[in-house]
Amino acid sequence: MKKMILALVAAFAMTSTVFAQNDNGNNFNRPSKEEMIKARTERTVKRYGLNDEQAKQLLELNTKYADKMRRPFGPRHGGPRMGGKNRPQGQPSDTLQRPQRPNKEQMEARMKEMKATKEAYEKELQGIMTSEQFTKYLDDEKAMMERFKKRQPAK
């Protein structure tokens, strides 16, 4: 009987420690902006076989475009969460108003801006990569868009 109670207490102690560390998913380690830029650069260098000089230029390019090429909307992409630790101080969660969704014109303007940014990025990237590397990059981008389109529900 003592062993059973002791085992139960030990199990409770371990699970409460795990839940205390979890903090409802609001306290996880996000990589810094610099770490994300470096990781993206390293993936590209490895995938397309860039040399050291190209890698240096690519890191500069990725740093230059880091803020311009972020995802546009929503809590997963830089917007505040509507509860938990990201709630403004002194406001209960039920008094917060959800941000308004962008209207069609705003979405179209943002899409134009994103397209122009992507084109400018790719133009500079073309100056860094060899023609074979850049062709492979474009093929990969095209394949990724095809996969994305297949996942989208039919309208």
Describe the protein's topology.
Elements: H1 2-22, H2 33-48, H3 52-65, H4 104-128, H5 131-151
Helix pairs in contact: 2-3, 3-4
Overview of this structure, please?
The chain is mostly helical and 155 residues long. The chain is built from 5 helices and no strands. The protein has helices at 2-22, 33-48, 52-65, 104-128, 131-151. α2 (33-48) packs across α3 (52-65). The longest helix has 25 residues, at 104-128. Mean pLDDT is 78; it is low at 72-85.
| Number of H/I helices | 5
Shape: extended
Secondary-structure-derived class: mainly alpha
Described by strand count, sense and barrel closure, the largest sheet is:
none
* Rg for CA atoms: 23 Å
Keywords:
155 residues; extended; single chain; mainly alpha; 5 helices
Quick recap of the structure?
By secondary structure, the protein is mainly α.
